[in-house]
Amino acid sequence: MRDRAILVCWLVAVVAITFVHDPVVLAALMLLAVVLQGTSAPRIALRAMAAVALVNLTVSTAFVVSALLSGEDWMLFVLRLNLRVFLLALLTFWMIRHVELTRAAAAWPSLQFLVVLALGQLRTFTALLADYRMAFASRSPTRPPLSVRLGSAGRQAAAMMEKAERQADELNHGMRARGFFDDRAGKNDRA
Amino acid sequence: MHIPDGLIAPQAYLAAAALAVPCWAYAVKRVSAALDDRAIPRLAVLTALAFVLSTIMVPLPGGTSAHLSGMGLLVLAFGLWPAFLAFSLVLALQAVLLGAGGITALPVNALIMGLAGGAVVVGVRALLGGNRSAWATVLCVWSGVVAAAIGLALVLGAQPLLGSDASGQPLFFPFGPAVTLPVVVVPHMLIGLLEGALTWSVLGMLDSRRAPA
Asked: A41 touching B, CB under 8 A?
């Protein structure tokens, strides 16, 4: 319940912030968000900054250059963009820190089950991909040519897809063997 | 290539959400009808697969690299609606687990990259009569990637029209389509070619592994 409440609050706050355009208000909200995060604020702020730095720097720099060339004011937009995007990222990383996604989805059993399964599979695939990458790196004392690297990326993707098909079948058989679908059918019948 | 939070006007992302919700509902219906009780495990594995595929780096000439979107591969291997659902779930997980992409931009990203890009892949394959040769696969995927890039560039380029203050300063993304189209689309013309070649090679490897000995 708590996780879902935080998730909903975050969603409402994110949407509401996109309606705020005054840099002073955005700065005040950002300060408030930093203060409310307490001792974890520096770590969350760094993560948020790292996540938005590339986009903000690229858009801000391009806007400043084009505004200078056309003799227009740029400060207001740059402040507005950076404060808003950073504030949104700050709130998102705060939410990530406080919300357990599987608990937040508890009200919708199918969605919760989907999330649990997807996250579990994600770990398996990520580990497999890391193994492939390390194996490729260990076999390549010098930087391989483009064709070899493309071939390696293709084989990684093919291995993932093949594993995905097998995993889907195995999961389905496992769930069927444990009566998961019978339980769901029973609930639907009772409903 | 997806758009982060804070650059899109509420008029754009709320309209996209209103359009995306029925599309997601329809996709759930189609996938559930086709897969019955296999839908949840299949979708979960597809979602994890799409997530991991999007972390595979496609090497670019000159020593840099780009992310594989994996959309063309998923559409050609599993069909439009399962791929669209899995891709949307990936975007949602990236937004709420990693803080990447953004939750307000999710419907825009999902509709353009997942549904429109995927539909173009399917449409081009149908136009080519289901041709599975190398050039046809590359053309299908390239068309999907470039179509998605054009869609995102147009959405970004529309933002100055959707929001500016009394002094004419933009409220959201500041550049029009004259800037966004070349900046977003031109690199994706090359990325689309590489992704197409990779998709063809992956599908070929899968076919050869499945072929009876």
From this structure: no
Tell whether A72 and A141 lie within a shared domain.
no
Sign for the CA dihedral angle at A83, A89, A93, A98 comes to: positive
Q: Of A102, A134, A162, which closes a domain?
A: A102
Taking CB atoms and an 8 Å limit, are A160 and B6 in contact across chains?
no
Measure the CA–CA gap between A84 and A129, rounded to whole angstroms.
35
Residue in B149, B40, B71, B133 with CA at minimum distance from that of residue A117: B40
Query: What domain range is A15 assigned to?
Result: 2-102
Instruction: Collect all residues with Cβ–Cβ distance below 8 Å to B167 and sequence separation of at least 6.
Output: A73, A76
pTM: 0.84
**Measured distance CA(B4)–CA(A178) in Å, rounded:** 41
* SS3 state of residue A99: coil
In the DSSP assignment, the letter for residue B183 is: I
Q: Of the candidates A45, A72, A102, which is a domain's last residue?
A: A102
Element (H, E) at B59: strand B57-59
Domains of chain B: 10-210 (1.10.1760.20)
Among B71, B68, B72, CA closest to B141? B72
Q: Are residues A90 and A145 in the same domain?
A: no
The predicted-structure confidence for B145-204, as pLDDT tens digits, reads as follows: 999 999 999 999 999 999 888 888 899 999 999 999 998 898 889 889 988 988 888 888
Distance in angstroms (rounded) separating the CA atoms of residues A158 and B198 = 10
Number of A–B residue contacts, CB under 8 Å: 188
CA distance linking residue B27 with residue B5, whole number of Å:
25
Q: State how far residue A9 is from chain B, nearest Cα, in angstroms.
A: 13
Q: Is A92 found in the same domain as A33?
A: yes
| Per-residue confidence (pLDDT) for residue B145, from 0 to 100 | 94
Whether residue A167 lies within 8 A of chain B, CB to CB, comes out as yes
